[in-house]
Amino acid sequence: MMMNTRRMVGLLLLVSAVALNGCMSYGPAPETVASVEIPKYMGLWHEIASNPQFFNEDLVSVTAEYTLRDDGKVTVLNRGRSGSPDGPEETIEGVARVVDKTTNSKLGVRFPSVPFSFLFEGEYWIVVLDENYEYAVVTDSRQSTLFILSRTPAMSRARYDAILDELAALEVDTSRLRVTGTISD
Fold first, then answer.
1. What is the pTM for the complete model shown?
2. Would the CA dihedral through 95, 99, 104, 106 be positive or negative?
3. Domain segments of the chain: what residues?
4. What CA–CA distance (Å, rounded) separates 183 from 8?
5. Which of 114, 129, 164 is nearest to 45 (CA)?
6. What is the CA 167 to chain-centroid distance, rounded?
7. How far apart are CA 172 and CA 148, in angstroms?
8. Please, what's the b/e burial string for 160-171 (b: 16 or more CB within 10 A of its CB; e: otherwise)?
9. DSSP 92
10. How confident is the model over 122-171, as pLDDT tens digits?
């Protein structure tokens, strides 16, 4: 795991802000998908777009790799390049657990290498999922985070626009979304 000092300080400030003020909400708690087959969800995903956060503000070429563990939890390995596709690689490893065992669409994630991570668990809510598991959209109950993920490094403009339309219908705020991957015409 590599985490620069700026991200570490940002994380500590975020933990303090959450403890003192709570999290800002960007919309209503979104409805998650009806069902997720966790084994089918495993593997490599490419980030196409995301809401900027202190932990990803200058990262590009971001991937998330999910591996099912024997205990039913999921190992999460996030990778990204700082500043440009040729920039230094940053990685962080975490562990996710299914929170909603009826649908498997709500998970909680912790990153043990992050100070004070034992105090909180990040929400990972799957709100859009392609029937063939080719793309997904993940957010949280307050719509603070938002990630459009794809099995391939590039996504067509038509598919991306259709996902944005679906998110609008779900009342998910996309106004802060920034493209971090490749959208082709």
1. 0.84
2. negative
3. 5-184
4. 31
5. 129
6. 15
7. 12
8. beebbeebeebe
9. E
10. 899 999 999 999 999 999 999 988 999 999 999 999 999 999 999 999 99
DSSP-derived letter for residue 19 is H
Chain position carrying tokens 């679906």: 166
The sign of the dihedral angle between the CA atoms of 25, 27, 28, 29 is: negative
Domain 5-184 has CATH 2.40.100.10: no
Is 40 a residue whose pLDDT tops 70?
A: yes
Length of the chain: 185
- Residue-wise pLDDT tens digits, 55-69: 667 788 889 999 999
How would you label 1-23 residue by residue, b for 16+ Cβ within 10 Å and e otherwise? Answer: eebeeebeebbeebbeeeeeeee
Which pLDDT score is estimated for 61? 86
Distance CA 170, CA 114 (A): 32
